[in-house]
Amino acid sequence: MNKSNLSEPYIKLLVVDDSWVVRKILRVTLSQRDDVKIVGEASNGIEALEMILKLTPDVILLDMEMPMMDGMTTLQHLMIHTPTPTIMLSSLSEYGSARCFDALKYGAVDFVSKNSFFQSMDSASHSKLVFAKVFYAAQTAVKTIDPMYMGPGSGAFANKGKEKVIFCEDCGARHIIHNWNQKLSSKKCLKCGDEISLLPNKRYLRMNYITIVGCGKSGYANLLKIIPSLDPQMGGTLCVMILDKPRHVESFVKYLDSISDLEVVMGTNGITLEGGSCYVFSGADEVSFSPYSGNYSVQIEPYTSQGRPGSIDRLMFSASTILKNCVSGTLLSGSETDGNKGMEAILRANGTCMILNPDYCLQKNMTREAIRHLNLQSDLDEAALAIKIQENHFTNKEKVMTA
Q1: Distances in Å between the alpha carbon of 260 and those of 223, 226, 328?
Q2: pTM to 2 decimal places
Q3: Cβ atoms of 10 and 35 closer than 8 Å
Q4: In which order are the strands placed within the sheet that holds 86-90?
Q5: Domains of the chain, start order
Q6: Mean pLDDT, consecutive 10-residue segments, the chain of 403 residues?
Q7: Which of 44, 105, 127, 333 could bond 68 through an S-S bridge, CB–CB 3.0 to 4.6 Å?
Q8: What ranges make up the beta strands (E) of 43-183?
């Protein structure tokens, strides 16, 4: 893990960009304060990797489009050997694009479109944005990320070796298959004799447990480390509320679904919750659940903030009211304090609450306020949190729950 201890009286910054104009603009901007210092400049990834070892910067501003070695390749080398909080810069991609999410997946803590960065705001606003991003990045912990070990099904419970756990749809009996392989298509239930399909797309997954995850737009990086590692056979349902614009959330859903074994879909009004799926919602919506024909459906209305709980609180309220102790609440990175009251409601219903360690949050208000308000402790990083989520779902997988 790398987390800046800030032993120096300033944040040491390395700027990596092949454009001397961009480097000059950043140099002028960052010279306005003495608590941030550019300790080095590089024009390509190869130079940057050599300088990182010598300068040990606290934060790196890294351009995506460079000759010799581009920013994404540089980031991947960096996160394997010397993990350092990195903010990606791009003139070709916008925030909320697939390329933006690629950068976050491979270890960047933040992303900035240079077009909006340098053209759409006055000098004072531009300076404020730059400093804010650098300060937040300097206080964010990062860990080694090896692309060779990333991808769908990489979670701790995902098809370990040749052992597989399955459940009978009719009687709920639990079976362990010790010599499972992809060619094995079915197994007879030893309890009721029913034929159990072993093909994931044909096996019914109960909606018997739900995890509500809340975060701000700074939580995308956390979600990219958690959701793809989850095994869809853990049962139950995930619902994620992101306090960001619908178009950014929709773009993220498409990206996340493409790299996850779980089915990830944008939550829509009237949709029925299914086991083995992840439903994602925008903070622009007020989301609740209602019983429908033995299942649970989603009700969505435009969110209005006038004296009302936040979007995350409302979603957690609804889940805890209907599903009682079959609910878990989780909070990730966010500048907002939404989620405190919702987590409190889940605890009152004897549900479970987990909070990502604020060290791993770019924006720490959401998690720190919940820890303070609810007197909760959390030392969980993204990998440990994913394991806890799966443990909760696997533990409750044999429950039979109908609306």
Answers
A1: 11, 10, 21
A2: 0.84
A3: yes
A4: 36-42, 11-16, 59-63, 86-90, 110-113
A5: 11-148 (3.40.50.2300), 151-204 (no CATH), 210-395 (3.40.50.180)
A6: 64 95 89 92 95 96 93 95 95 85 95 71 75 95 78 42 61 68 65 71 64 97 96 90 95 94 93 92 94 84 78 96 94 95 96 96 96 88 95 80 54
A7: 44
A8: 59-63, 86-90, 110-113, 164-167, 174-177
